[in-house]
Sequence to fold (395 residues):
Amino acid sequence: MRVGFSTGSCAAAAAKAAATMLFSQAKIAVVRIETLAGIPFEAEILDPFFSENEAGCAVIKDGGDDPDITSGAKVCVLVRVIPVEKTKWMSEEADSVSPEMESTSNKVFFRAGEGVGIVTKPGLDQPVGEAAINSGPRKQIEKEVREVLSEYGILGDVEITISVPEGEKIAQKTFNPKLGIEGGISILGTTGVVKPMSTEALLETIRISMTQRREMGDEKVVVVPGNYGLEALKTSCGIEPENCVVCSNYIGFAIDTAVELGFQKMLLAGHIGKLAKLGLGIMNTHSREADGRLEALSTAAMEAGASAADGSDPQCVSEYSHLECDRFFACALHILQANTAEEAVDLLEKRGIQVPVMKQLMRRIHFYLNKRAEEKMEIECIVFSARWGEIGRTK
Fold:
């Protein structure tokens, strides 16, 4: 599959081209840079212009074969020479220049233009109030621009403004508003390249979201796989979506991260179709990694029937006679023939055994969640059904 290039690499290429045009006073059509991963990137330069004190251009983001929402976006960069009299007060803005540049003769200042977000919450790569241009891209951009400054013997400082004209619209389809990045997208890229179907960005988003909650003083964290969990928790428990961390399929990673960050408690909530897999110890719930929804429910049905038969579960003994326990086992076979977890839950309800079976499933889920957390954090779980609402919760 074809590798793409990050918004950070696009900005670095555009910055190098703009700086070259500014100091050479000539337009260029193509620029070549080396990404942080060491992979060369040759970019076509669009909309080039220059004057005596500034120059600008654009590069189109190519995400390769990765379904990146920013692929096709125009990343624009304006490079401007800073007048000597302004250098002093700009240097006093600690967040505007990277620490690596403090001891050099040239300083590179960053500004967020149209469509590039501003950080409004702690725990992100950049401090509150700063442009959402991550440290990787900043390093890459500074390297390329400083090479041009050295080539032309420029001793002054420069200001770089990055814009993405459609950035604010694109950002509404990302995690940025929830993370506390307002006004546009982030300029990202730890390596400068985009690997198709890479999970790194999603895992980093989970970590950032949890880090933010922890830095805000939270000792407990609410985690959901996706939008269904967000809506169900708000309706059932009054928990607002902005107070939750979305982990997608990476439940095991979310638990590991919560433990690592020192959370004392974690609540996991979501749909039976995803969380049932936890009853078998499956911690990456993506269908291509593993399934087991029906198997987990079937196993729970058999265990509930066995508990009723041998008297180990007082609830089952009081509600179901030994002669009725066969229906648990008969239902277990029918569950395996169901098409969906929702259909399996309907079977349980029709047979009047949803409560004891879900109780057993929640015991299994609780066991595996605590096993993953290594007893270093209290962890509980609520499971919902689209038809029946809340159908199970741990102790």
